[in-house]
Write a structure and sequence with these properties.
The protein is mostly beta strands and 188 residues long. Helix content is 0%, strand content 60%. It contains no helices and twelve strands.
Length: 188
């Protein structure tokens, strides 16, 4: 079962793709690997990558919405003597999906008071992109058994403009830019 764009619906706000669940005979093959290397008592490094290939065997075409190749690497420093201080930097690479079905449609739009057919490209995946993230935390003893964790993170540090292939809103807007978060978690 998968969602497939089957047509367009035109409203007063514009034309929007209509998605419908369909069933097919499919083959999914992939690999998902993660390594973790403890360099010493303070430093840790991890590497992960994933790849999936999906085919619609009934129509002999690639499946829609199969994630592209992704890889991430993270280096982390921690020191228990400094109130369990932890800081990590993570790099994330998302490739461009090269295998996708062509589901483009033609719709009519008004140009100079005349309905004009226009092809709408909803099939072409967005470009590959790289992201950089930073996360840090520190823990404090609050009550007799309670611990408070104060964390600070920045997602998409370089404010990269990108669109995610698996997000159907990519037709209308970019993904979120740089995002700062402060968290306070109290366990008691």
């Amino acid at each position: 079962m998968f969602l497939k764009p089957v047509s367009f619906e035109t409203t007063i706000r514009g034309a929007f793709p209509v998605w419908q669940y369909q069933q097919t005979n499919a083959r999914l093959v992939g690999v998902d690997t993660q390594t973790n290397w403890k360099i010493n008592s303070h430093w840790n490094h991890s590497l992960a990558f994933a790849y999936v290939n999906g085919s619609d065997l009934t129509q002999n075409i690639p499946l829609i919405d199969i994630p592209p190749f992704t890889a991430s690497t993270k280096i982390q420093y921690s020191n228990a003597k400094w109130n369990h201080f932890l800081i990590e930097v993570k790099g994330e690479l998302v490739g461009e999906q090269k295998q996708f079905p062509k589901n483009d449609y033609t719709t009519n739009i008004v140009v100079n008071n005349v309905l004009t057919p226009v092809e709408v490209d909803i099939s072409t995946p967005p470009n590959s992109y790289e992201l950089l993230h930073i996360y840090s935390e520190i823990k404090f003893k609050t009550f007799s058994k309670g611990i408070a964790t104060l964390a600070f993170s920045v997602q998409n540090v370089l404010n990269t403009t990108y669109r995610d292939y698996l997000n159907r809103q990519r037709f209308f807007a970019d993904e979120m830019g740089r995002n700062f978060q402060i968290q306070l978690k109290i366990n008691y």
